[in-house]
Amino acid sequence: MTPHKLACPKCRRTVPEVFWQGVDIVRCPACEGEFEQLRFPALAAARRVERAGATAAGEANCYFHAENRAEVACDGCGRYVCAVCRVPMSGKNYCPSCLETRADRRKLPENHRVLYDRIALVLAFLPLIMWPLTLISAPVALGVCFYAWKKPGSLVPGWRRTRLVIAGLVALIQVGVWLFVFGSMLFR
């Protein structure tokens, strides 16, 4: 366990533990300055470390530590793991290998997102190659823009809303052109 240290904020010297145990206002023995300490009880509490038991004859052992007794099977890959290797997560137990490789992506929380901004951009720009398709794709692109406005974007920060605005503007122009074409045909 790491020894606890407390440094004086004025002189930066380490204050011996006898001066700050059990008090809120600490007086530095070096500079005679006083400062308030905010206690964090979890820091001083002894940390409970689970120890894996040794295997006995006829017992299953850990996949990663052959000398340790297996406690649970990994919910991702089914390997037996000891108390040291067990990683509890969302009520299930995983081994470090599954967490590292994300082999069980479907069961881990949020491993992918739909990138609506890119879908809207594709719907707005790709049909320009075959322009009659814009009659259908432009309203769909506008709908995707409105639907995706409050949806979470990519896990990597980027220009999500800017892409949605660009796709929406292009789709709106396409819809306007189609309304102009149909309007001029009707009111001749």
Order of helices and strands: EEHEEHEEEEHHHH
Number of helices: 6
- Residue windows where pLDDT falls under 50 for at least 5 positions: none
How would you sum up the global shape? flat
Biggest sheet strand line-up: 1-2
The overall average pLDDT, rounded, is 82
Rg on CA atoms, Å: 31 Å
Q: Which quaternary structure do these chains form?
A: single chain
- Percent helix, as a range, is 25-40%
Global structural class: alpha+beta
Plain-language structure description:
This protein is α+β, with helices and mostly antiparallel strands and 188 residues long. It has 6 helices and 8 strands. A hairpin with a 6-residue loop joins strand 1 and strand 2.
SSE inventory with pairings:
Blueprint: E1 6-7, E2 14-15, H1 17-20, E3 25-27, E4 34-36, H2 41-44, E5 72-73, E6 80-81, E7 87-89, E8 92-94, H3 96-101, H4 116-125, H5 134-148, H6 160-186
Antiparallel strand pairs: 1-2, 3-4, 5-6, 7-8
Helix pairs in contact: 4-5, 4-6, 5-6
Short description:
The protein has 188 residues and is of the alpha+beta class. 35% of the residues lie in helices and 11% in strands.
Give descriptors for this structure:
188 residues, alpha+beta, flat, two-stranded antiparallel ribbon
